[in-house]
Design a protein that fits this description.
By secondary structure, the protein is an all-alpha fold. It contains four helices and no strands. It has a single domain, classed as Chorismate mutase (Chorismate Mutase Domain, subunit A). 76% of the residues lie in helices and 0% in strands. It is elongated, with a radius of gyration of 18 Å. The protein binds ligand ISJ. The ligand C=C(O[C@@H]1C=C(C(=O)O)C=C[C@H]1O)C(=O)O binds next to helix 2, helix 3 and helix 4.
Length: 105
């Protein structure tokens, strides 16, 4: 678990605010979410790299296309068809995590 907690900005939060203040409040929440998403992606990439490394140590294929297909379906089931683009970007980031680990290690 990453420990991030979120609350959604509600209409009531903005009732007393100017549009400028409302936008600033919403953007502040967006900025928090971007940091949290990037942290989660970093953690995911480390875990994915560890799985890939372990499979290589077992002389198995580093990648698993069946598993990647299930990951893509998870994103599209939540986000709709555009989720496929996000899934692809996430998988690309995580496939690269092994290379980065090697350079750093
Ligand atoms: C992490 C794994 O290895 C690779 C990376 C994946 C991912 O980042 O989601 C998925 C499948 C594999 O190609 C895994 O098999 O779960």
């Amino acid at each position: 678990m990453s420990g991030h907690t979120f609350r959604t900005a509600s209409a009531a939060d903005g009732d007393q605010l100017s549009n400028e203040a409302r936008i600033a409040m919403l953007r502040s929440r967006i900025d928090d979410l971007d940091v949290a998403v990037a942290d989660l992606l970093s953690e995911r990439a480390q875990l994915s790299g560890a799985v890939q490394q372990t499979r290589l140590a077992d002389r198995a294929a580093r990648l698993d296309t069946g598993r990647e297909h299930r990951v893509r379906r998870r994103y599209t089931s939540v986000l709709g068809p555009r989720g496929a683009d996000i899934a692809e970007a996430v998988l690309t980031l995580c496939r690269g995590s092994l290379g980065r680990d090697r350079k750093e290690g």
